[in-house]
Amino acid sequence: ITLIAITSVIITLLSAPFTGAFLKLMQVPNYDLAGNYTGVFDMAKPYLFILFLGSAANGFYNVVSGIIRGLGDSIFPLIVLIGTVVLNIFLDILFVAPWGFNMGIAGAAWATIIAQYLSAGVSVLKLVLMRKGISFTAQTLRLKSGTVKLITRLGLPTGIQMAVMFASNLITTPFINRMGGMVMATLTATMSIDGFAVLPSQSFSMAASTYVGQNIGAGRWDRVKKGTLTCFLMCLIFTAVMVAAILLFGENLYRLFIDAADKDRADIISLGMNLIVIMLPAYFLMVVNMTYSGVMRGAGDATGTMWISMIINVFLKVPLTIFWINMSAKYYDPSIVKAGYTPNGDIRTMFYAMLVCFGIGCGITMLYYRHGKWKTKSIVGGPPADEPSAALAE
């Protein structure tokens, strides 16, 4: 908790003052390809600045809810999250609506961070009241070198992994922003809808980490294999349900994000559904990748998954995406603009690159998992007594 307090202050100080510089680096435009003013940059700057001010709340909620789940209560963080979403929706309407505070896009950002700070505060209060060997005093909150090293060993690789993923997106974002407002609108809506398909993988990855960590800590290696398979199968089923729902109701979902008066509405929906179809195999590859990565992180091996992520996102996805986008721009054909092409590249090439990288990443993850080295990384106990540390993770 002390570490997240310190890092939140540092992150806020290093991000909020440079909001405009970040957006310029990403080449966020104020004008469309025809030279018409869109104000995207002018709207994004205050919105992002306010969100940066919520870094501490976001960090505290994630850390404290992770502790609460580790102590065996996975329901409370869910309840807080549901309450936060409901509050966020209410505040969004109140702050943005003309009959409310009419604050525009800045109001949506304020609504988000207010809800985040309340969720963080409630989570900390719950942790204090649980009293499961936890006390908040000057002595317990003081940083101790041994504990800091241990937490850093477990947390820093995961942090680097997340940073690498976001950095790879930042590198490719300028190429996307050059494609114009229609492509940007399509990608924004697609990422929101895509989140529903990715949600089971993210959720069961966290569940696998918590489950495996608790059972290894209790010396119950016999439950790890069974729990891993159960998490994988449940994630697969829920992902299939989500993907089927998106395919059935995808066009209706896109309409929620696009103004009915937008002249490009039909093209955005058509291109968006095309992107979702391209990603279909990736959603199921993600089930394998994220579930087994969660198992290995729960066992204490965050470094292995970090290197896999770096290989996929830095050494494969970025160069492949840039190369394919440039190639699609080079062979641009004005007669097929409706299919999502622009003189500055085809957005679909980015999704093909992600699909290829997910496939390679899935293979590397499974090879590493089956090698079994992750079994030797637990901070309590050791590898299962009935097999050598380097045995295959059957």
Strand content: under 5%
Overall form: globular
SSE class: mainly alpha
**Total number of helical segments?**
13
Overall pLDDT metric = 88
Lateral strand order in the biggest sheet? 1-2
Helix content: over 70%
Let me know the largest β-sheet: 2 strands, antiparallel
N→C terminal distance: 37 Å
Nearest-angstrom radius of gyration?
23 Å
Describe the structure.
The chain is mainly α and 394 residues long. It contains 13 helices and two strands. It has a two-stranded antiparallel sheet with strand order 1-2. Strand 1 and strand 2 form a beta hairpin.
Q: What would a concise description of this structure say?
A:
With 394 residues, the chain is an all-alpha fold. It contains 13 helices and two strands; from the N terminus they run H-H-H-H-H-H-H-H-H-H-H-H-E-E-H.
